[in-house]
Amino acid sequence: MDYSHNDAELIQQPIGYWSWAAFKAVVTRTGGALAQIGTTQPQWWVLARVARADTLHTRDELTRLFRNYLDTGSETMGWEIDRTIAQGWITEDPEGRLSITAEGRAFHEKAAALQKELWAERHAGVSDEEYLTTLKVLQRFIHNTGGRAWHH
Q1: Helix/strand/coil (H, E, C) string of the chain?
Q2: 30 close to 48: Cβ distance less than 8 angstroms
Q3: Does the model's pTM come out above 0.90?
Q4: Is 58 exposed, middle or buried (0-12, 13-18, 19+ CB in 10 A)?
């Protein structure tokens, strides 16, 4: 791969642009790949959380958890949960607790395999050490600018 600038020039590049460009590339690629198998990123979040849960989550718990992911919002998360139920992948009991169906488990396995492929694609040529450093640097930028991420 060819970098956009030499090292001396690259160090002067704006983090805002490059973090935005990386975000856009990753989210677009992931969303497009998920769409090809018939789902969305928020539906994947819901399905993955419900599939891996030791205890049943409620609709409200998942909505609160995911509403800030990619600025999705509570209304959109509610709609995405509804779509995941309509697909037959999860069910909701009268108390709002969500559980996975057999069809949902099979689809989760398919989507999880795709996510694993996407992870490998994104991480090609990137060591674990480089990845760790990148995340720590990005979190430091968030902290230094008074921003907030999901872990705050």
Answers
A1: CCCCCCHHHHCCCCHHHHHHHHHHHHHHHHHHHHHHCCCCHHHHHHHHHHHHCCCCEEHHHHHHHHCCHHHCCHHHHHHHHHHHHHCCCEEECCCCEEEECHHHHHHHHHHHHHHHHHHHHHHCCCCHHHHHHHHHHHHHHHHHCCCCCCCC
A2: no
A3: no
A4: middle
Structure tokens at 114: 């795709």
Amino acid at 22: A
Q: Output the CA–CA distances (angstroms, integers) from residue 47 to 25, 89, 102, 137, in the order listed.
A: 23, 7, 12, 30
Q: One digit per residue, pLDDT tens: the chain, 152 residues?
A: 888 998 899 899 999 999 999 999 999 999 999 999 999 999 999 999 999 998 899 999 999 888 888 888 889 899 999 999 999 999 999 998 999 999 999 999 999 999 999 999 999 999 999 999 999 999 999 999 998 876 55
What gap in Å lies between CA 125 and CA 121, rounded to an integer?
A: 9
27 in Cβ contact with 67 (< 8 Å): no
Structure-token pair, residue 79? 């709609």
What Rg, from alpha-carbon coordinates, does the chain have? 18
